[in-house]
């Protein structure tokens, strides 16, 4: 079939042609916005799941829905070791500009921007000279005495309150979308929880929708014991067979082509229902089909091509970040986890490698920080990337160890 018309789009955060199997999350978000609009108390949302299940795509869809309702939005991607103030300031500056278009009192807008600028300027380390100071690009004087204490927990509460009040002035609200939540630093996590607590108590029209790896709830709970009551956690998982079939069949039929049931079954088996893999195998199958219908034979021919692309762009790019000691740990996990990539006891990894558990702690801790594995519970670890064990099983162990 014509590769130019190929509807599938395997890419980081790229919306698939058919967003299937996510009605529960979309409905929960719609209810959240409606309740907050009516002044009803509601918890913010946190989406959790493995890499490749479509969390970032879903955040983008939720942002679109909020904009359609007239809400302002801001999006931030947390980065390990990076302070939250600067990217958060930029995201909220964009949201405030959207609100300013509808606000009838320029003074109120400037007042809010002044608070935002005061918050942003505290991203500069103490003692930074004027020449080296980062400027947030907000063309109003910084307000003194609000959101400028230097304590992120105090300042974020005051900033959220000011922005939410501005949104309320124009009869709308604001959604802050925060991706990769597991990479937030301890102080930023604490501040976020405290701010969401204040918002839920005051009924302010500002909600946070976060996304991150499966252990995000434990990261939040470690900061504030009441965090489980602040957020509604939605686990994003692989697509079931019905949703996966819809994600493949619908885009193909929109292009005037067809796919038979055996091909759909083969695609679901190969992809495991993980949305990123569905797109990768679907794209390869379309390109391999000689006629206007995708068959199981086409899927069989296309599978090696899809797997090669995944090996380089999805799995390989992550493995390259691991040191030789970390790769040894990953290979041991893969050998113990089996085909389903089940969580494995850290003690069993040490036994498998014939090493003391304490000697493996640096490798394990580094893998946790790099987001390649996560702790499912105390003493157990699992891959954050689906099918990672299968990928490692097909590689030359000694070649990885030598890198």
Automatic annotation (TrEMBL):
<dbReference type="InterPro" id="IPR027417">
    <property type="entry name" value="P-loop_NTPase"/>
</dbReference>
<dbReference type="InterPro" id="IPR041664">
    <property type="entry name" value="AAA_16"/>
</dbReference>
<feature type="region of interest" description="Disordered">
    <location>
        <begin position="1"/>
        <end position="20"/>
    </location>
</feature>
<keyword id="KW-0547">Nucleotide-binding</keyword>
<protein>
    <submittedName>
        <fullName>ATP-binding protein</fullName>
    </submittedName>
</protein>
<feature type="domain" description="Orc1-like AAA ATPase">
    <location>
        <begin position="18"/>
        <end position="209"/>
    </location>
</feature>
<dbReference type="Pfam" id="PF13191">
    <property type="entry name" value="AAA_16"/>
</dbReference>
<keyword id="KW-0067">ATP-binding</keyword>
<dbReference type="GO" id="GO:0005524">
    <property type="term" value="F:ATP binding"/>
</dbReference>
